[in-house]
Design goal:
The complex is a heterotrimer of chains A (156), B (248) and C (286). Chain A is mainly α and 156 residues long. Chain A is built from five helices and one strand, in the order αααααβ. Chain A has a domain at 29-132. Chain C is 68% helix and 2% strand. The chains are: A mainly alpha (156), B alpha+beta (248), C mainly alpha (286). Bound molecules: iron/sulfur cluster (SF4) (2 copies). Residues 111-114, 117-119, 136, 153, 155, 157-158, 181 of chain B line the site of one iron/sulfur cluster.
Chain lengths: 156, 248, 286
């Protein structure tokens, strides 16, 4: 009896595991196409295999160079990654979505990306099109903001 | 556009920088100075030979005009959350009234890009730092948000981001939990352009703001500073500010 | 690229606080390990010197802020030291009384009165430093603004300063501790300690919040207006999480003390007068 139940359970598990595979879906991430290739022979700014493994090293290195020394080469710049790997269509996926280039793989690898807490997750051209970047209400009206009336420096 | 064209455009953009760099190398140093001004190749680090500065003429600053502030907000995607006490303001218009004489004037106040910045002195992690060319920045990657720099800055120049942001300007990353202040539009400066506020003021023909290299005797800012007297705000602190004022 | 900025007194405080835990751990070990007992004194002295440096660091967090009128004063460091003596001793007396009461151990008057007399000295010393600080500021015209703010028309800060810090937190306990009646009554001594702690909290509030609420003087002789609250007294009320965080720190320290004294055998079994003072004469004299 117990044996019989176990067999059914096992069978169920096997079937369950087989379903996604047989439905044609793979567990591998669906990585969106980039906008361009660096050259006919090379896809990304470094060989793709290398980029898959070491992109974070390149970006990290570039990050310090850019912030502290003002070195703004494009090859390892995060902004350029996004410009090329994320579409500038208005409905382009955000990093919160698995369809976003970075997140497609990061979800698969279960590695959290922090970059986009500060960095734009969509290309420069998208930012230029958006009227209200930043997520808050536009400060366009700041000219009309009333100056805080002052009790003076009431101290004197 | 065919695929090949796309690749070509991409390649050209890529090679553009390399070409710029090698062109610079090919020229004699003197020619490069006069020809390209401050344009530095993208792969070269900034140096202490340059010190960026700004001269603000309060006499030319028009009361009621807010163009510099607006330009800064637009440039960096600074948005408000209806919390005026904590909403970011990198540059602000300040109105002064002399208690004795009643004379009033306005001027923009921003990070003064001090040569000896108190914000850098107090920062425990080194997140607050001064670039070789005198621009004071916050490296938000290592800022822990302690806000000690905000207490230390004599000009109230810094803001703290309290809200989760998205759709930042790609060249001006900003995020919750870090401190920020005027960057002298460092992304423009590195690209040999002027800061957004200066551009806006000039476009309005007020010309109250002059930006340039204070170490270059032939720059407009150096010449004006030499010709006319100017002041630093809180000169008593001897911070040798990069922002100088006239008419206060 | 994070690095340790040794010019930052904030960064120093991290070392000083963490180091203090280590130093105290060594001190405890010397006390507990019989073989090491001969080093107890040295370790204790080391811990004491360390805490002097530590509090110098804490005071200097404010003392080193050149930009603000209310800070930027060398006196901050020694003042913080004396403040820590005073508030710390008040807490110590309360904890001591509570622990001995709850564990039914005798705590004699001799030691308690010695401690409360010392507390009186510390309270007076804090007042002296406060006086010296304000007198110095009042002498220079440039600081009249901030002094007027704290002493005269700073609203809640002024009230906290005069009523809570000075009145309830300093003068009243001083009076109680040294007057013949309440000064020899345990309940009154405990109450005085409580007052000192309340006064201390008020004093910290006036220094930390009041010192930042007052606008920085950037344009001497001018009235300042802007959209960024220039020239305006900043407005601050602690939020609930902030309040709870503060309370949590105190609770954690007290919990650690209770557990420590229960688990480790540090508390003398008796602090009765004859244990404390060999020359004690049982016939109670006044
Ligand atoms: S003005 Fe303030 S934020 Fe800017 S460099 Fe000076 S101290 Fe730092
Ligand atoms: S808030 Fe950030 S930049 Fe400012 S002192 Fe703290 S760590 Fe440094």
């Amino acid at each position: 009896m117990i044996n019989y139940g176990l067999k059914i359970l096992l069978l169920g598990l096997l079937l369950g595991a087989a379903v996604p595979a047989s439905a044609g879906g793979s567990l591998l991430p669906v990585i969106p196409e980039a906008q361009a290739r660096v050259s006919e022979t090379q896809g990304c700014v470094e060989p793709v295999d290398d980029m898959r493994k070491n992109h974070m090293e390149y970006i990290l290195h570039q990050r310090d160079k850019t912030v502290h020394e003002g070195i703004r080469t494009q090859q390892h710049s995060l902004v350029e990654c996004i410009n090329c790997h994320v579409s500038d269509a208005p409905d382009a996926p955000r990093v919160s979505s698995e369809e976003h280039f970075c997140n497609s793989c990061h979800t698969y690898a279960a590695v959290k990306v922090d970059c986009f807490q500060c960095h734009a997750d969509r290309p420069v051209s998208t930012a230029q099109k958006l009227s209200q970047p930043g997520g808050g209400e536009s400060l366009l009206l700041s000219a009309d903001r009333q100056p805080v009336s002052v009790t003076g420096d009431q101290a004197q | 556009m065919s695929e090949q064209e796309g690749i070509d455009i991409y390649r050209r953009r890529f090679l553009g920088n390399a070409a710029k760099a090698s062109a610079g190398l090919a020229l004699a140093p003197g020619i490069m100075l006069t020809e390209l001004g401050h344009a530095k190749p993208a792969d070269e680090a900034v140096t202490g030979q340059v010190r960026w500065g700004m001269l603000i003429d309060s006499n030319k600053c028009a009361e009621g005009c807010n163009d510099c502030v607006q330009a800064c907000n637009d440039e960096h995607g600074l948005t408000g959350f209806d919390r005026p006490a904590t909403d970011a303001q990198w540059i602000r218009k300040v109105k002064l009234k002399d208690r004795q004489t009643g004379h009033t004037q306005t001027l923009p106040l921003l990070c003064q890009h001090c040569e000896h910045p108190p914000c850098v002195d107090v920062c425990p992690t080194g997140a607050s730092f001064k670039r070789e060319d005198g621009i004071v920045l916050v490296d938000k990657h290592i800022c822990i948000g302690c806000r000690y720099c905000m207490m230390a800055c004599p000009y109230k120049a810094r803001s703290f981001i309290h809200e989760t942001l998205q759709d930042q300007m790609p060249y001006a990353p900003r995020g919750k939990g870090t401190v920020e202040s005027c960057t002298f539009c460092v992304h423009r400066v590195d690209d040999d352009r002027t800061p957004a506020c200066v551009e806006a003021c000039t476009a309005e023909n007020h010309n109250a703001l002059v930006f340039g290299d204070m170490h270059d005797p032939s720059s407009q800012i150096s010449q004006e500073l030499e010709r006319h007297s100017s002041q630093q705000i809180r000169a008593d602190l001897q911070l040798n500010t990069g922002v100088r004022y006239r008419g206060i | 690229m994070t690095y340790y900025n040794f010019k930052s007194i904030f960064a120093w405080n991290i070392i000083l606080y963490i180091g203090f835990m280590g130093v105290v751990a060594v001190y405890l070990w010397m006390m507990m390990e019989r073989k090491m007992n001969r080093f107890t004194r040295a370790a204790g002295m080391g811990a004491f010197i360390w805490r002097l440096i530590l509090t110098t660091g804490t005071g200097s967090i404010f003392g080193f802020l050149v930009a603000r009128q209310g800070y930027d004063a060398a006196i901050m460091a020694p003042m913080f030291i004396v403040m820590s003596f005073s508030f710390g001793l008040a807490i110590f007396i309360l904890v001591l009384m509570a622990l001995y009461k709850w564990s039914d151990r005798p705590l004699g008057d001799a030691i308690l009165f010695r401690l409360k007399n010392l507390l009186g000295v510390f309270v007076a010393a804090v007042m002296y430093f406060v006086l010296a600080y304000h007198l110095t500021n009042l002498y220079g015209t440039e600081n009249h603004g901030v002094e007027r703010f704290i002493l005269l028309d700073g609203g809640v800060y002024t009230q906290l300063f005069w009523i809570v810090q000075l009145g309830i937190g300093s003068l009243l306990p001083l009076l109680l501790l040294y007057s013949p009646g309440p000064g020899t009554n345990r309940a009154w001594i405990g109450f005085s300690c409580l007052l000192v702690i309340i006064g201390g909290l008020a004093q910290m509030y006036v220094i930390i919040i009041g010192g930042q609420a007052y606008p920085m003087e950037m344009f001497p002789g001018k009235e300042v207006t802007s959209t960024f609250f220039d020239g305006v007294v900043a407005d601050y009320t602690p939020s609930l999480p902030e309040f709870v965080l503060g309370l949590g720190g105190v609770a954690l320290a007290l919990a650690a003390t209770v557990v420590g004294t229960r688990v480790l055998r540090f508390l003398p079994a008796s602090l009765a007068d004859e244990q404390v003072d060999p020359h004690h004469t049982p016939a109670k004299a006044g």
